[in-house]
Amino acid sequence: MDRLRTSDRAAAEELFSACYPRLAGWVRRLVDDDDTAHEIAAEAFTRLLGRWSRLDNPQSYLYMIATNLVRDHWRKTGRERRALQSVGAAAAADPVYQPAQDVHVRALLQALPDRLRSPFLLHYYAGFPVRDVAALLGRPEGTIKADLFQARARLRTALGEADD
Amino acid sequence: MTDPRDDLDAWMKTQVQPLPPPPGTFELIRKRARRRKMTRAAATAAGAAAVIAVIATVPRLVLTQLHSGPGPAASSSDLGQSSAANGSRHHQRASAPPQPTPDPTPSAVAPPAAPPDFAATSVTFVGTATGYVLGQAGTPGHCGPPSAYICTSIAGTSDGGRTWHGVHAPVAGAPQGPSGVSQVRFYNTSDGWAFGPQLWATHDGGRTWKRIGTGGRRVTALETAGQRVFAVWAQCTGRGADWAAGCTGQALQEAAPGSNRWAPVPGAGARFSVSGTASAAALVLTGRRGYLLAPDGMLLSGPVTSAGGWQPVTGTPAPCLPGAAQADGQPGGAMLASTTTGLVLVCPGAATGGSQTKTVYTLAAGARAWLKAASAPSAGTATSVSGSAASTIVLASTAGIEVSRNGGASWTAGQGTLPAGGFSYVGMTTADQGVAVPADPAVHAVWFSYDGGATWQESPIG
């Protein structure tokens, strides 16, 4: 991280080159299309650059922002979907190809409470160790472990019910 | 039943497929971050500084944020800019909205010059004197500040197109797949939008622009009148400068002009593609009502003076379908315009050897069926149509401009020194004044008529 601070622009560009494709791909699995994934990834990087000099772990911060933006996106699309249904029109199927498994699990993830969803995404999906997730979310490691266990249990139950 | 553990474990173990950034993303991010810092700093300073200090700062911001592109024109291929005209739409409104507070920029400061090598793609007017043109200007790589490679620029006029000055543009590139902007509309001298495919909004006369999230959908049309702004959002697959191609799932969204909160229009906010067939939709607003020609040819209408539901107008589809979009997002198969007595629909036939049949239909106010009115001259390929007075129709094509003052029964060619390649767009601001954008953006000008379309004169920009 010291090196990042010695040359902010070069370090930011380096982080961008190294992290953007994976971050955008990570978001892509959680949203509807490439455009939205790029919007969210770009917004996460924009916010990151705004706090660049004050961060010890930019990559963690990046995924934390992206997680929140994905959550906001889900809320917004949920509102839109309800609005469409309220005018009596069924939305056409999204023309963008989505692996069925992704859509299935993603829908269940959306239903998780924030308390469980954020650690789940950061740990199992973004690949951060429990210790980092705890630091990011400001909770004890033990709590994060319990949250992860509970999130998995809920998802498995929901998946089981959906398949019945 | 499958084992739920399989689904969950498989999902968690699936490798993330990297999604590379579109060209110029890092530069865009840097600009956006820097602009936010400036905004925050300005807000902080404004809380503590005297008003005089703010006034002294504004002109400097104006000058430093303008996109001016010094240097000779060069290939724009680096940015993927199209060498063809992207077309435009001209904002035509029957009733003028209330004017906002005048620009606080001190009057003693001369407005900055319009950027050089201005290639116009879209024009909008607020009344007869004040207008804005959006396009690409300067030389990619030399367009800063704030970005050397983003050359989207806006020129403004406050004297009906006789002179032009620079106006802040959104930090967005030329249309490139899902990115960039190509079109512009203003509701008044404060509230405006740049769109196609992205959507940006300003509420301070262009001083600052904000990107509006569209959930990945592209904005193919936007018009504002009455007390609303409407836009067609669509799922599109077109790449590069062909950004409006492959559009399905169009839906009409609306917002109040001073707001960034967009919502589906009741009755037209659902996706109304024809069985998923890629197509376009036409949007026309008058001072009281809006009209949407959906991809399936059905005409919907609703109020523009308040939020309200839109409903079908005609019982049967229009005599021609909108079909695929032109380069500017507008339909190529059906061109819609309004006059003071109803709607005009131009149905172009197949283009062969530089000519094309162009059948004109009308729909009188209150009627439920289109009536075949006449045929327009066959020279050129139709690109845009506009109406003004009761029976006046102005049609732009790759051959020039044709005007009919009797509902299409007879036509007269617009006179003047017109650009080779004709026009990509024409719009009448009033019964007398109109503006047209050349099909070849390298002309660096737009054309005006002050006599109802009879004669047209060039207005160079930049």
Q: The CATH topology of the largest domain in chain A, please?
A: Rna Polymerase Sigma Factor, Chain: A
The CATH architecture of the largest domain in chain A is: Orthogonal Bundle
In DSSP terms, counting alpha (H) and pi (I) runs of 4 or more, how many helices of chain B? 3
Distance between the termini of chain A: 49 Å
CATH topology of the domain at 334-462 in chain B: Methylamine Dehydrogenase, Chain H
Low-confidence stretches of chain B: 47-109
The averaged pLDDT of chain B comes out at 80
Cα Rg of chain A: 17 Å
Question: What is the 3D shape of chain B?
Answer: globular
Number of distinct helices of chain A: 8
Query: How much β-strand is present in the residues of chain A?
Result: under 5%
Report on this structure.
The complex is a heterodimer of chains A (164) and B (462). By secondary structure, chain A is mostly helical. Chain A is built from eight helices and no strands. Chain B has a domain at 334-462: YVTN repeat-like/Quinoprotein amine dehydrogenase (Methylamine Dehydrogenase, Chain H, 7 Propeller), CATH 2.130.10. The longest helix of chain B has 24 residues, at 25-48. Chain B is globular and about 65 Å long. The model of chain B is unreliable at 47-109 (pLDDT under 50). The interface between A and B is large, with 59 and 47 residues.
Mind sketching the topology for me?
The complex is a heterodimer of chains A (164) and B (462).
Chain A: H1 2-6, H2 8-28, H3 34-50, H4 58-86, H5 100-111, H6 114-125, H7 130-137, H8 141-163
Chain B: H1 4-13, H2 25-48, H3 51-65, E1 119-126, E2 130-136, E3 152-157, E4 165-167, E5 183-186, E6 192-195, E7 199-202, E8 210-212, E9 218-225, E10 228-235, E11 248-255, E12 263-264, E13 282-285, E14 289-293, E15 299-303, E16 311-312, E17 335-338, E18 342-352, E19 355-364, E20 371-376, E21 382-387, E22 393-397, E23 400-404, E24 412-413, E25 423-428, E26 434-438, E27 445-449, E28 457-460
Antiparallel strand pairs in B: 1-2, 2-3, 3-4, 5-6, 6-7, 7-8, 9-10, 10-11, 11-12, 13-14, 14-15, 15-16, 17-18, 18-19, 19-20, 21-22, 22-23, 23-24, 25-26, 26-27, 27-28
